[in-house]
Prior knowledge:
Elements (H helix, E strand, L loop, with lengths): L18 E5 L4 H12 L3 E6 L2 H14 L5 E6 L5 H12 L7 E4 L16 H22 L4 E6 L25 H21 L5 E7 L15 H6 L5 H13 L9 E4 L2 E3 L8 H19 L1
Parallel strand pairs: 1-2, 1-4, 2-3, 4-5, 5-6, 6-7
Antiparallel strand pairs: 7-8
Helix pairs in contact: 1-2, 1-7, 3-4, 4-5, 5-8
Amino acid sequence: MTKPQSRLSPISVSPNGKVAIVTGASSGIGRVTAVELALKGFHVFLACRSQNKTQVVLQEISLLSNNTAKADFLPLDLGDLTSVRHCAHSFLERNLPLHLLVNNAGLAGQRGMTASGFELTFGTCHVGHFLLTDLLIDRLKHSTPARIVVVASKAHRHANRLDYNSLREPTRSASGLQEYAAAKLANILFASELARRLHGTGVTTYSLHPGVVATDVWRSLPWGLDWLIKKFMISAQEGAATILHCATSPQCATSSGEYYDNCSVRQPSTAACDVDEANKLWKASEAWLREADS
């Protein structure tokens, strides 16, 4: 696996003419992904909730690149569909191309509902990203070749199906991990269905397991459980490697809709390969968004 290289001294960045959006880029694997893309010459937009936390990453990019890399903040709360629409509009009004969308932001172990009325983890990990992608898809098509990378998890294997009724209710499980598994299953179904619908457009899609990474995504797990599982986790630098592989590797350029783990194509669960379920989720997601607009 090719890992992102640590930067010991500033470098001078040559812009490559490409534009990327990375959600959840203020910490963890999203931060590493945004930094590495900026140092590869992308103009990177960090779509995050906290401007203060994102500003720290922007300063890091500036320092590492001797002020030669381009990076900007986009406010985004994936649990609030109004915020998602504002984020997309803010980017589109800049009249820039879009060559890469990294749907990375997520959470685990939190309980409740989003501002837009979905189970908290599912609404954040899937519904918000579904809308953001839909709003940006035409710009991606006009910027081909372009890629959409969806950060999922091998935790999807713990979900055999989606319970559509529970997706509009508060978190049921005590740990929230059952809902996390369902959300990650939805991520893979979404990426595969997106690939089918974008076939021949020049926009390719990828879903992936970044590894079990010690990041803030686990911050709301019950005390003791977070400490225990983090003993067996990898670093954010290691976790970002498969994201960057899917986002930039020439090896991935001709494939679409596949699931990656450790920078290689892997077979996801049987449930994640269900074409009918992927289509059902897509139609349900569209219906939810129409309902939100009404």
